[in-house]
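Lecture 7 notes: from sequence to structure.

We start with a single chain of 661 residues. Read the sequence below before looking at the structure.
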Amino acid sequence: MSLNVRIRAWRLIAGAALLVAPLSTALAQRQSARLDVEHYVIRAEVHPRTQDLTAEVEVRFQPLDEGLRSVSFQLHNALRLERVVDENGAELPADRTADDFTVRVSFPELLGKGKSRSLRFSYRGTLTGKEESPVWGLTFAAIRQDHAFLLYPARWFPVNDYTADRYTAELEITVPSGYKVIAGGIESSEAAGPDQMRFRSRFTQPAFPGSIAVVQGEPRLVTSEGVTTTLYFRGETEAMAAAYGEAVGKVVSFLSGLFGIAPQASLTVIQTDSGAPTGYAGPGLLFLSPEGIGKTVNSRLLVNQIARQWWGHLVSAATRNHLWLTNGMARYAEFVWLRETAGPPAMESEVREAFVEALTVEDVPLIQSARLEDYSPEFWAATAAKGAGVLHMLRRVIGEEPFARLLKEFPEKYAWKAVFTDDFRAAAEAVSGRNLQGFFIQWIESSGAPEFNIEYTVFRTRSGFRIMGKITQDLDTFRMPVTLKIETEGNPEEKEVEVVGPSTEFVVETFGKPKNVVIDPNNEVLRFDDNMRVRVAIRRGEQLVEIGEFAEALKEYQKALDVNRYSSLAHFRIAEVFFLQRNYQAAANEFREALNGDLEPKWTEVWSHINLGKIFDITGQRERAVNEYNLALRTKDNTQGALEEAARYLQTPYERPAQSQ
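Now the structure, written as tokens:
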């Protein structure tokens, strides 16, 4: 399986995710004053030919603290601030801090708490997509000759309390004739002068508007499941528009059944560029990169991003510490979609993958997610993977029917509002009639996960058998219902035990003679065991490879081998690192070890043969290379197009790419 190395600015700490305040934390938290932005009026001109932007933005806000003399906003560093004036037209001093993209505006007098004030920012700049982004390594703003996209995370307009401070807005965007502006909201257009058009959008409900696209040509309109989707795809991906339109309708219909009436009756889907996030959701809008679109419909990406119309726009996190609610719910929607379309085993497999990812971050409780850098592997592992895992466990604790009611009633009750974890907990307690304080303390306010051990003795009774035993684990405050599977000479039996604290004694009765007792057989609890430790160490290594930290990645892979020296996946990942480093003998040794290991997952076999073939081609041993490619074909495993790749190199020898300077 080929390795895609994506260099990012964030730094992973091997074995832990306790981070010193990085850029995103500064962007989200480093404010000189607490503000509530109420309303924006954004007037901008986008010039595709010169790839620049001219803007004038009025911001109405209320100070949330007494005695303030300055306020701060975040604005893209590539945008040159020309002046800032108050509501009376008086120019105010403004200082910029490039490190955290901050503009600090000073007032001559103290600002009154709760009293609305206004500022008008005038600025201009070039946005080619190559400038330093507030989210390093990802492009959220780019103006091209034939299209443009300016997304909220780019801070292309002055932003306060990123992802938390909701606002209403009016947008007036002017572009040359022949272009169209897509911004969502209530839209209209008019001529703005010779060869210019002005497009207006109005957002009357507080959310996070301000993500726009500039497009050319006519869209593809597709109606599916009663939902009409407007799609602006370009180039090679244009052929995918009809299929995506069909899929969007199905996903919107499915999610409406899960979360209630959609906040937007229809969606507009817009293609961005390579280097942009695979998906980003604005109010009524969906932005997909070419990689996100792919050659087949990426339904899971659609589910995740469309879910954010409810969880992210209709309701949102009151602070970044509560983002697990929105990111977790979007990922949880993927679980339910898989259950619906591929069956319960597919959902169970994805839950296990989410648990693995979640356990790569052990030291940061979900309620402290603001410590994690935006869009970093740790950020998604915590807020999305662990968040979804917590929701999955909550569904089991309170029951299927109450949980289904919770998913519909909560966004309806808190529509167009920012919410806290305590709001969600109160709603869960209301629908279930249970006190969930312990659950939320364990999984939201605390870090770590249990590792279960079980001891038991079997006694014969008049009516069957009695098992008396003890479950131990290492978390003092832990309390969760846990399933025991009793394998008997007849049919297996399952019992539920409430595990409380470090040691819990239990007694269960069975009809058949017990042969073995397995704790949590379906992996319904986020927990460690030897297999999980192997997978978590490998996943941490993969995250480190993604940012080019090969030495640290090898240490993590070795941790996996310390637990299971036959792990084919650990050997395979080590081989990939050696291959990238052009240490072909060491890579070949590890690919051989992968073939001699447990062959979990199964695809490690076919791809080990292919990579050995590549090594032999590189080292001038064509006959041995051909043998490996044929062995790959005999597996009949086409994971990630393996068979096509093996067949290609049977025809034409593999040549290693030129080494970058």
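The chain has 17 helices and 27 strands. Keep this in mind for problem set 3.
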